[in-house]
Amino acid sequence: MPDAAVHVGSGKVRELYALDDDRLLLVASDRISTFDVVLPTEIPDKGRVLCGLSAFWFARTGATCPNHLLEIRPDGRSMECRRLEMLPIECVVRGYLAGSGWKDYTQTGVVCGHELPAGLHESDRLPEPIFTPATKAEAGHDENIDLETAAGLVASERLEQVQATALALYEFAAAHALERGIVIADTKFEFGLDADGTVLLADEAFTPDSSRFWPADEYAAGGPQPSFDKQFVRDYCESLGWDKTPPGPDLPDEVVAGTRARYVEAFERLTGIGFDRYMDDPGVVVR
Ligand code: Q0Z
C-alpha cells in the first residue's frame, strides 16, 4: 500500500502534496481569482483545463528543456511530478508591454534593466521578447529585479541558462498560440534542479493562470486588453462596484458558464484536442 499523500503547500488555486521523497502531486482546483482575490464560486473543470494545458506544453517542449512531469492522474487535475530543488526566482518572459512591465516602463523607461525604446504604448508588442525575473514573494506581489540581482540569487551561469531556455520556450509557445488566435503576452516559469544538478522546467507551463492570454482578433495596443479567460468575471465584478477586498462576490450561473466555455475554448484551440476526449483519457495530451 502506498503511503497517503502529505499536504505540503497551498497556492491561491492549487494544492501541493508529497507522495514520497522524490515525487510531488500538484492538484489544480476549480477556484478562480480575480484582482488577487479568490472568489467563493468555482468554475467547473477549470483545474482540468489548466492541468491538461500544462501537460500538453511539457510534452511538446521536452526537447528544449526537460521537465518535472511524470504523469497526469485519471481525474485530469492532478499531476505527479519529480520533486526538485526550486530556483528562488520567477522566470518571466514578456513579448508585450502589460502589467508590472508596463507600469515600470511608464515610470522609468526600463523593465528589469532592459532599456526599451521611447514612445511605447500599453500592450505594444516589444521589439523582441525580454526576460524579466522577479523575486518569489511569500505574501503580496513578486518584485521585478534586474539580471544582476537575479544572478546573485542563482549564480550567473545558471541565470544565463534559464534566461535562454525561458526565451526559447516563450518563442515556441507564443508562435503556436498566435496561429490559433491567442496572444500569449507574457508568461512565468519556475525551474528546479534534480539530484544531478540538471535544470528542469517545473510548476505549470503556459496556462492562463501563469500567463496573459489575449484574444488575437481583438488585439489593439494603446490600452489594456481583454483577458481571454477571465474577462466575464472581471466585467461582472466591475459592474457590482465591489472594492476588490475579500470576500469576493458570488458569481451568477451565466458568468460561470461563460467563463467555463472560455477555458475550454483555450484548451481546444491550443491543443487541437476536444476537451471531452481529455476528460475521457487525460493521457491524450502527452501522446
Ligand atoms: C512548486 C506551488 C502548488 C503551492 C514548490 N517539482 C517541484 N519540486 C519542488 N517544489 C515544487 C515543484 Cl513544482 C513547488 N511550488 C508552487 C504549487 C501549491 C505552491 F500547487 N512550490
Any low-confidence stretches, pLDDT <50, length ≥5? none
Shape descriptor = globular
Query: Average pLDDT, to the nearest integer?
Result: 97
Bound molecules: ligand Q0Z
Largest sheet, strands/sense/barrel? 7 strands, antiparallel
Q: What structural class do the secondary elements suggest?
A: alpha+beta
Residue fraction in strands? 25-35%
So how many helices? 7
- The rounded Rg comes to 19 Å
In N-to-C order, the SSE pattern is EEEEEHEEEEHEEEEHHEEEHHH
**Helical content class:** 25-40%
Terminal CA distance: 29 Å
How many beta-strand segments?
A: 16
Question: What is the topology?
Answer:
Layout: E1 6-10, E2 14-18, E3 23-28, E4 33-34, E5 37-38, H1 46-61, E6 69-72, E7 78-82, E8 85-86, E9 89-96, H2 99-108, E10 110-111, E11 114-115, E12 125-131, E13 134-135, H3 147-154, H4 156-179, E14 182-193, E15 199-202, E16 211-215, H5 231-240, H6 253-271, H7 275-280
Antiparallel strand pairs: 1-2, 2-3, 3-7, 4-5, 6-7, 8-14, 9-12, 9-13, 9-14, 10-11, 14-15, 14-16
Helix pairs in contact: 1-6, 3-4, 5-6
The structure holds ligand Q0Z.
